[in-house]
Amino acid sequence: MAHGAPESLDEIPAYLQHIMGRMPSEEVVNDITERYHRAGGKSPLLEITQQQATALEKRLNQSGEHFKVYIGMRHWHPFIHKTVRQIAADRPERLVALSLAPQYSKLSVGAYLQTLEDALTASDINIPVHPVKSWHVQAELISAFSEKIETALAEYNDASRHTLCLLFTAHSLPESVLKEGDPYPDEVRATVSGIMEKLEQSIPLLPWFFAYQSQGLRRGKWLGPGVEETLGNLGEAGCSHLLVAPIGFVSDHIEILYDVDILFKGLAASQGITLKRTASLNTAPHFIEALAQVVRSHLPEAG
Protein backbone atom coordinates (compact mmCIF):
# COMPACT_ATOMS: atom_id res chain seq x y z
CA MET A 1 0.00 0.00 0.00
CA ALA A 2 1.09 3.56 -0.72
CA HIS A 3 -0.24 7.10 -0.82
CA GLY A 4 -1.09 7.25 -4.53
CA ALA A 5 -0.35 10.02 -7.03
CA PRO A 6 -1.82 11.50 -10.23
CA GLU A 7 -0.48 10.24 -13.54
CA SER A 8 -1.42 13.36 -15.50
CA LEU A 9 -1.97 17.05 -14.82
CA ASP A 10 -5.70 16.66 -15.55
CA GLU A 11 -6.07 14.30 -12.59
CA ILE A 12 -4.68 16.75 -10.02
CA PRO A 13 -7.95 18.51 -8.96
CA ALA A 14 -9.74 15.22 -8.24
CA TYR A 15 -6.63 13.82 -6.55
CA LEU A 16 -6.39 16.83 -4.23
CA GLN A 17 -10.12 16.65 -3.51
CA HIS A 18 -9.73 13.05 -2.38
CA ILE A 19 -6.88 14.00 -0.03
CA MET A 20 -8.54 17.11 1.38
CA GLY A 21 -12.10 15.84 1.52
CA ARG A 22 -13.31 18.96 -0.26
CA MET A 23 -12.76 20.82 -3.50
CA PRO A 24 -9.36 22.56 -3.38
CA SER A 25 -9.02 26.23 -4.15
CA GLU A 26 -7.88 27.31 -7.59
CA GLU A 27 -4.68 28.62 -6.00
CA VAL A 28 -3.84 25.24 -4.50
CA VAL A 29 -4.63 23.41 -7.75
CA ASN A 30 -2.46 25.79 -9.76
CA ASP A 31 0.42 25.50 -7.29
CA ILE A 32 0.41 21.68 -7.23
CA THR A 33 -0.09 21.50 -11.00
CA GLU A 34 2.96 23.71 -11.52
CA ARG A 35 5.04 21.43 -9.30
CA TYR A 36 4.06 18.35 -11.28
CA HIS A 37 4.61 20.21 -14.55
CA ARG A 38 8.16 21.13 -13.55
CA ALA A 39 8.81 17.57 -12.34
CA GLY A 40 7.83 16.01 -15.67
CA GLY A 41 4.04 16.29 -15.82
CA LYS A 42 3.17 13.13 -13.86
CA SER A 43 4.22 11.01 -10.95
CA PRO A 44 6.14 7.77 -11.59
CA LEU A 45 4.93 6.36 -8.26
CA LEU A 46 2.48 3.80 -9.65
CA GLU A 47 4.87 2.52 -12.30
CA ILE A 48 7.67 2.13 -9.76
CA THR A 49 5.33 0.49 -7.24
CA GLN A 50 4.27 -2.00 -9.91
CA GLN A 51 7.93 -2.78 -10.58
CA GLN A 52 8.53 -3.24 -6.85
CA ALA A 53 5.53 -5.55 -6.60
CA THR A 54 6.72 -7.65 -9.53
CA ALA A 55 10.23 -7.94 -8.10
CA LEU A 56 8.91 -8.79 -4.64
CA GLU A 57 6.56 -11.47 -5.92
CA LYS A 58 9.40 -13.06 -7.89
CA ARG A 59 11.66 -13.00 -4.82
CA LEU A 60 8.99 -14.51 -2.53
CA ASN A 61 8.25 -17.32 -4.97
CA GLN A 62 11.85 -18.35 -5.60
CA SER A 63 11.42 -21.37 -3.34
CA GLY A 64 8.32 -22.61 -5.12
CA GLU A 65 5.80 -20.92 -2.85
CA HIS A 66 2.61 -19.20 -3.99
CA PHE A 67 2.65 -15.53 -3.10
CA LYS A 68 0.75 -12.89 -5.03
CA VAL A 69 1.55 -9.22 -4.50
CA TYR A 70 -1.28 -6.72 -4.87
CA ILE A 71 -1.07 -2.91 -5.05
CA GLY A 72 -3.53 -0.62 -3.30
CA MET A 73 -3.33 3.18 -3.03
CA ARG A 74 -5.07 5.25 -0.38
CA HIS A 75 -5.65 8.42 -2.41
CA TRP A 76 -5.58 7.41 -6.08
CA HIS A 77 -5.93 4.54 -8.50
CA PRO A 78 -5.74 1.66 -7.91
CA PHE A 79 -7.64 2.39 -4.71
CA ILE A 80 -7.29 -0.04 -1.80
CA HIS A 81 -11.02 -0.84 -1.80
CA LYS A 82 -10.90 -1.88 -5.48
CA THR A 83 -7.85 -4.04 -4.90
CA VAL A 84 -9.66 -5.72 -2.02
CA ARG A 85 -12.39 -6.84 -4.43
CA GLN A 86 -9.75 -8.62 -6.51
CA ILE A 87 -8.29 -10.16 -3.39
CA ALA A 88 -11.76 -11.42 -2.48
CA ALA A 89 -12.15 -13.00 -5.92
CA ASP A 90 -8.77 -14.74 -5.61
CA ARG A 91 -9.56 -16.06 -2.11
CA PRO A 92 -6.05 -16.21 -0.63
CA GLU A 93 -5.36 -18.10 2.60
CA ARG A 94 -3.98 -15.04 4.36
CA LEU A 95 -3.00 -11.46 3.71
CA VAL A 96 0.12 -9.55 4.76
CA ALA A 97 -0.64 -5.81 4.78
CA LEU A 98 2.56 -3.92 3.99
CA SER A 99 2.78 -0.14 3.62
CA LEU A 100 5.64 1.34 1.62
CA ALA A 101 6.43 3.67 4.51
CA PRO A 102 9.04 2.14 6.83
CA GLN A 103 8.38 4.41 9.82
CA TYR A 104 5.01 4.08 11.54
CA SER A 105 2.63 6.95 12.13
CA LYS A 106 -1.07 6.79 12.83
CA LEU A 107 -1.50 9.38 10.06
CA SER A 108 0.29 7.32 7.41
CA VAL A 109 0.68 3.58 8.00
CA GLY A 110 -2.15 3.61 10.51
CA ALA A 111 -4.44 5.24 7.95
CA TYR A 112 -3.50 2.69 5.28
CA LEU A 113 -4.28 -0.19 7.62
CA GLN A 114 -7.58 1.36 8.66
CA THR A 115 -8.56 1.89 5.02
CA LEU A 116 -7.76 -1.76 4.34
CA GLU A 117 -9.78 -2.92 7.35
CA ASP A 118 -12.76 -0.82 6.26
CA ALA A 119 -12.53 -2.20 2.72
CA LEU A 120 -12.37 -5.80 3.94
CA THR A 121 -15.39 -5.22 6.16
CA ALA A 122 -17.36 -3.56 3.37
CA SER A 123 -16.63 -6.49 1.07
CA ASP A 124 -17.47 -9.01 3.80
CA ILE A 125 -14.08 -10.69 3.50
CA ASN A 126 -13.00 -12.84 6.43
CA ILE A 127 -9.38 -13.93 5.99
CA PRO A 128 -6.45 -13.67 8.42
CA VAL A 129 -4.68 -10.33 8.02
CA HIS A 130 -1.12 -9.84 9.27
CA PRO A 131 -0.44 -6.08 9.43
CA VAL A 132 3.07 -4.69 9.17
CA LYS A 133 3.17 -1.62 11.37
CA SER A 134 6.84 -0.74 11.22
CA TRP A 135 10.05 -1.91 9.58
CA HIS A 136 12.20 1.19 10.07
CA VAL A 137 15.38 -0.60 11.21
CA GLN A 138 15.08 -3.76 9.11
CA ALA A 139 18.66 -4.80 8.31
CA GLU A 140 18.30 -4.99 4.53
CA LEU A 141 16.51 -1.63 4.46
CA ILE A 142 19.39 -0.04 6.34
CA SER A 143 21.81 -1.70 3.90
CA ALA A 144 19.81 -0.39 0.92
CA PHE A 145 19.89 3.21 2.14
CA SER A 146 23.56 2.93 3.13
CA GLU A 147 24.52 1.55 -0.26
CA LYS A 148 22.85 4.48 -2.05
CA ILE A 149 24.71 6.94 0.19
CA GLU A 150 28.07 5.21 -0.37
CA THR A 151 27.51 5.23 -4.15
CA ALA A 152 26.72 8.95 -4.11
CA LEU A 153 29.69 9.78 -1.88
CA ALA A 154 32.05 8.01 -4.27
CA GLU A 155 31.31 10.70 -6.86
CA TYR A 156 32.89 13.46 -4.73
CA ASN A 157 36.59 14.20 -5.09
CA ASP A 158 38.89 14.77 -2.13
CA ALA A 159 38.68 18.56 -2.40
CA SER A 160 34.90 18.69 -2.22
CA ARG A 161 34.77 16.12 0.59
CA HIS A 162 36.27 18.72 2.96
CA THR A 163 33.14 20.86 2.67
CA LEU A 164 30.63 18.03 2.21
CA CYS A 165 27.72 17.47 4.60
CA LEU A 166 25.01 14.85 4.69
CA LEU A 167 21.34 15.75 5.23
CA PHE A 168 18.78 13.07 6.06
CA THR A 169 15.15 13.95 5.38
CA ALA A 170 11.74 12.45 6.08
CA HIS A 171 8.19 13.59 5.40
CA SER A 172 6.92 16.05 7.97
CA LEU A 173 3.67 15.47 9.86
CA PRO A 174 1.44 17.78 11.91
CA GLU A 175 3.06 18.52 15.26
CA SER A 176 -0.08 17.27 16.97
CA VAL A 177 1.23 13.71 16.58
CA LEU A 178 3.65 14.43 19.43
CA LYS A 179 0.78 15.00 21.87
CA GLU A 180 -0.71 11.67 20.83
CA GLY A 181 2.53 9.81 21.53
CA ASP A 182 3.02 8.89 17.87
CA PRO A 183 6.28 6.91 17.41
CA TYR A 184 7.07 8.46 14.02
CA PRO A 185 9.77 10.97 15.10
CA ASP A 186 11.59 8.33 17.14
CA GLU A 187 11.39 5.76 14.34
CA VAL A 188 12.75 8.22 11.78
CA ARG A 189 15.68 8.98 14.08
CA ALA A 190 16.27 5.25 14.60
CA THR A 191 16.50 4.75 10.83
CA VAL A 192 19.10 7.51 10.65
CA SER A 193 21.06 6.00 13.55
CA GLY A 194 21.05 2.58 11.90
CA ILE A 195 22.38 4.03 8.66
CA MET A 196 25.10 6.02 10.38
CA GLU A 197 26.24 2.95 12.31
CA LYS A 198 26.44 1.07 9.03
CA LEU A 199 28.31 3.88 7.26
CA GLU A 200 30.86 4.29 10.03
CA GLN A 201 32.16 0.85 9.13
CA SER A 202 33.12 1.88 5.59
CA ILE A 203 33.53 5.66 5.25
CA PRO A 204 35.03 8.52 7.26
CA LEU A 205 32.42 10.21 9.41
CA LEU A 206 30.78 13.21 7.74
CA PRO A 207 29.03 16.12 9.40
CA TRP A 208 25.36 15.17 9.17
CA PHE A 209 22.01 16.80 9.86
CA PHE A 210 18.35 15.86 9.85
CA ALA A 211 15.32 17.83 8.68
CA TYR A 212 11.67 17.27 7.81
CA GLN A 213 10.40 18.04 4.32
CA SER A 214 7.20 18.33 2.30
CA GLN A 215 4.81 19.81 4.84
CA GLY A 216 1.24 19.25 3.68
CA LEU A 217 -1.78 21.49 3.17
CA ARG A 218 -3.23 21.05 6.67
CA ARG A 219 -3.09 24.18 8.80
CA GLY A 220 -1.11 24.36 12.03
CA LYS A 221 2.44 23.57 13.04
CA TRP A 222 4.34 20.74 11.41
CA LEU A 223 7.29 18.74 12.69
CA GLY A 224 10.60 20.52 12.32
CA PRO A 225 13.23 21.61 11.71
CA GLY A 226 12.28 21.95 8.06
CA VAL A 227 14.73 21.63 5.19
CA GLU A 228 14.29 25.28 4.28
CA GLU A 229 15.33 26.38 7.78
CA THR A 230 18.20 23.90 7.89
CA LEU A 231 19.63 25.02 4.55
CA GLY A 232 19.94 28.51 5.98
CA ASN A 233 22.23 27.21 8.73
CA LEU A 234 24.43 24.86 6.69
CA GLY A 235 26.57 27.62 5.18
CA GLU A 236 27.59 28.67 8.69
CA ALA A 237 28.52 25.04 9.34
CA GLY A 238 30.98 25.13 6.44
CA CYS A 239 28.90 23.03 4.07
CA SER A 240 29.34 24.15 0.48
CA HIS A 241 28.42 20.68 -0.82
CA LEU A 242 25.36 18.85 0.46
CA LEU A 243 24.20 15.29 -0.15
CA VAL A 244 20.53 14.76 0.68
CA ALA A 245 19.39 11.27 1.70
CA PRO A 246 15.56 11.08 1.83
CA ILE A 247 15.22 8.12 4.21
CA GLY A 248 11.49 8.48 4.68
CA PHE A 249 10.79 7.58 1.06
CA VAL A 250 11.38 4.38 -0.91
CA SER A 251 10.72 5.51 -4.49
CA ASP A 252 10.80 8.48 -6.83
CA HIS A 253 7.69 10.67 -6.65
CA ILE A 254 6.82 14.35 -6.36
CA GLU A 255 8.40 14.84 -2.91
CA ILE A 256 11.68 13.72 -4.44
CA LEU A 257 11.49 14.93 -8.03
CA TYR A 258 10.18 18.41 -7.18
CA ASP A 259 10.80 19.10 -3.49
CA VAL A 260 14.39 17.85 -3.46
CA ASP A 261 15.53 18.00 -7.08
CA ILE A 262 14.05 21.41 -7.88
CA LEU A 263 12.92 23.37 -4.81
CA PHE A 264 15.65 22.45 -2.32
CA LYS A 265 18.35 22.43 -4.99
CA GLY A 266 17.42 25.99 -5.92
CA LEU A 267 17.26 27.14 -2.30
CA ALA A 268 20.65 25.57 -1.62
CA ALA A 269 22.18 27.30 -4.63
CA SER A 270 20.96 30.64 -3.30
CA GLN A 271 22.95 29.86 -0.14
CA GLY A 272 26.07 29.01 -2.14
CA ILE A 273 25.56 25.26 -1.57
CA THR A 274 25.71 22.61 -4.30
CA LEU A 275 23.02 20.06 -3.54
CA LYS A 276 22.83 16.50 -4.81
CA ARG A 277 20.77 13.57 -3.56
CA THR A 278 21.06 9.83 -3.27
CA ALA A 279 19.27 7.68 -5.82
CA SER A 280 15.91 6.38 -4.61
CA LEU A 281 15.61 2.75 -3.57
CA ASN A 282 12.99 1.87 -6.21
CA THR A 283 13.86 -1.75 -7.12
CA ALA A 284 17.34 -1.96 -5.58
CA PRO A 285 18.13 -5.60 -4.67
CA HIS A 286 18.69 -4.86 -0.96
CA PHE A 287 15.35 -3.09 -0.84
CA ILE A 288 13.42 -5.92 -2.49
CA GLU A 289 15.12 -8.32 -0.09
CA ALA A 290 14.03 -6.08 2.79
CA LEU A 291 10.41 -6.26 1.64
CA ALA A 292 10.61 -10.04 1.29
CA GLN A 293 12.04 -10.47 4.77
CA VAL A 294 9.42 -8.17 6.25
CA VAL A 295 6.64 -10.19 4.62
CA ARG A 296 8.02 -13.52 5.81
CA SER A 297 8.62 -12.25 9.34
CA HIS A 298 4.92 -11.37 9.65
CA LEU A 299 3.64 -14.79 8.67
CA PRO A 300 2.69 -17.28 11.44
CA GLU A 301 5.32 -19.79 10.28
CA ALA A 302 8.04 -17.26 11.03
CA GLY A 303 7.12 -17.33 14.71
Describe the protein.
The protein has 303 residues and is α/β, with parallel strands linked by helices. It has 2 domains: 45-136 and 284-302, 3-Layer(aba) Sandwich (Rossmann fold); 139-277, Rossmann fold, CATH 3.40.50. 46% of the residues lie in helices and 10% in strands. The chain contains 13 helices and 6 strands. It has helices spanning 12-20, 26-38, 45-60, 80-90, 109-122, 139-153, 158-161, 176-179, 184-199, 227-234, 254-257, 259-270, 285-297, and strands spanning 95-97, 129-131, 164-171, 208-213, 241-246, 274-277. The strands form 2 sheets. The protein has a 4-stranded parallel beta sheet with strand order 4-3-5-6, sandwiched between helices. Strands 1-2 form a two-stranded parallel ribbon. β1, α5 and β2 form a beta-alpha-beta unit. α4 (80-90) crosses α5 (109-122). The protein is globular. The two termini are 24 Å apart. The model has no long low-confidence stretch (mean pLDDT 95).
